Amino acid sequence: MTNNRCELIAQAPHISAPQGPGRGRPKITSAMEEPRPFPPKLLKTHFDFVGAVVWPIWFLINSGCPALPERARLVDSAQSFMDSAVAGAADIGRYGRRIVRMIWDPEPTNDPIANRPAWCLGYEYTLETNITSKTKGEDSKLSTATSSDQQRPPAQANKVPQMPSAQLPTEAAATALSGNTTPPTPEAALEPTKITSQPAAIDTPPDSVDSSFDSSMAYDDVPDDGGWPPAFLNDFESRIWMTYRSGFEPIPRSTDPTASSRMSFAMRLKTMADQQAGFTTDSGWGCMIRTGQSLLANSLLTCRLGRSWRRGQAPDEERKLLSLFADDPRAPYSIHNFVAHGAAKCGKYPGEWFGPSATARCIHALANATENSFRVYSTGDLPDVYEDSFMEVAKSDGKTFHPTLILISTRLGIDKINQVYWESLTATLQLPQSVGIAGGRPSSSHYFVGAQRSDEDQGSYLFYLDPHHTRPALPFHEDPQLYTPSDVDSCHTRRLRRLHIREMDPSMLIGFLILDEENWHAWKSSVKHVQGKSIITVSEHDPSKGSASGRPSAIDEVETLSDDDGDSVLDG
């Protein structure tokens, strides 16, 4: 009996790590094939890390670090544990990081057979149906197109985007040569851009700007295209990506005795071990601020350079824009100024997590105090947009319409997003006016910029930029020309991440950029006719201004968002 059992076990298939283009799905191998062994060194490091670091720190956190005479010694011990963790993690090496990334965070791949459209902030991308017509070794070209005038600043409304002729799509190149710059019809304003591109050959690198990555586990290697349309990846890579930073000028700690009680246990332990007078990194608490910065940065990018901008174009203008978000109090949109306004007006202490509502208030205040031709309209804690209030912001003088960012803080469920909102939430990322969603994942905040329908159910996968990767502080330069290629590269990534909409946290901040009045009417119509249960409603009059018209039922349709609600506060 024992021998038979051993034979059955020996004949059982083994699951080995996925390799090559098919990675993402485990490879089943027979018992005769030698599976790739798990590195013993990694196993030893893992158990050493858990035994020597995780459990002692977990005990300290859950015990509340009681104030004993030996408290200083406990803190020193905790610091030594953390130092050991760093040393142990460094010993894992490149091989171990790849395995961990493969198991816990596999790179998403596209199914070329289903060829479902991939969306990125209102642009639709698909593969060519006749994929065999591509000759081997042919370079993949950057495909960009302008869907309609509302996706560019008004000053560029009747101009063809300035791009190298080799990178212009066929129709745009023909238009440029013929001199025909007639703007599209108003009806086109409701139609998103659809871009088709052929998949790059496996042995052909994509024709895009190189990106540099730090030693972060998930960004250790530049991924291949994974079957995604190259134009989609180029668009994704061109979005500005704000992450944790370290080594910046200290943000002073609050002297309020209740400030520490508002922090997480992990942050309390970290602040006790750190004897400095302030925070020199936002790691562990600043993720919602970083995703809010990303949303604002991409709004300004579209407003200044147009939605069709891609990396490598107008580098001087890109540097000027990034300088506004440097990790320095002199930069208007620095984390220092977000924290300062949060402490003064939102009741948020330095080192405390922000929620979507507090982030929206910070963006509103900082942008309106900095920009001359750019406005921010925030709906507060309800999803209703009121036309009279909006126009007071966009046309403050009653004549000139200024590009205006609409910020909607909302909550679409209790623990998870209610399924009735799945379609309408996905549709927000397909609108040409979309500038993304900040928040939306349990215990952390991400910046969502794209979507693709799921093959498994009626839901969608949402693509996002993850701020939880610590990089050196972005310096402030009076002369933006002093920014190095590494500084600029640290604000972009080609590495795709996605999650299913059912896994999202219901608390989020949704952004739309309205460039002109025609764009405003197109957006209102799109929101009104969106599929699924609407998450945004546009009314003519704000009832708080004394008008009888309004929607008393609005508060019952979508839950009110509050930063004081523990479920709506997003972990850093």
From TrEMBL:
Biological process, per Gene Ontology: aggrephagy; autophagosome assembly; mitophagy; piecemeal microautophagy of the nucleus; protein processing; protein transport
Record carries keyword Protein transport: yes
Biased composition (Polar residues): 142-153
Coiled coil: none
EC number: 3.4.22.-
Location of the Peptidase C54 catalytic domain: 231-525
A GO cellular component annotation in the UniProt record: nucleus
Comp. bias (Acidic residues): 556-572
Reactions catalysed: [protein]-C-terminal L-amino acid-glycyl-phosphatidylethanolamide + H2O = [protein]-C-terminal L-amino acid-glycine + a 1,2-diacyl-sn-glycero-3-phosphoethanolamine
Family, per entry: Belongs to the peptidase C54 family.
Composition-biased stretches (Low complexity): 207-216
InterPro entries: Papain-like_cys_pep_sf, Peptidase_C54, Peptidase_C54_cat
PANTHER family: CYSTEINE PROTEASE (PTHR22624:SF49), CYSTEINE PROTEASE ATG4 (PTHR22624)
UniProt enzyme class: hydrolase
Pfam families according to UniProt: Peptidase_C54 (PF03416)
First-listed, main subcellular location of the protein, grouped into a coarse class: nucleus
Key words of the record: Autophagy, Cytoplasm, Hydrolase, Nucleus, Protease, Protein transport, Thiol protease, Transport
GO terms for MF: cysteine-type endopeptidase activity; protein-phosphatidylethanolamide deconjugating activity
Record's function text: Required for selective autophagic degradation of the nucleus (nucleophagy) as well as for mitophagy which contributes to regulate mitochondrial quantity and quality by eliminating the mitochondria to a basal level to fulfill cellular energy requirements and preventing excess ROS production.
The protein's name in its UniProt record: Cysteine protease
Subcellular location: Nucleus; Cytoplasm; Preautophagosomal structure
Chain positions covered by the region annotation Disordered: 134-220, 539-572
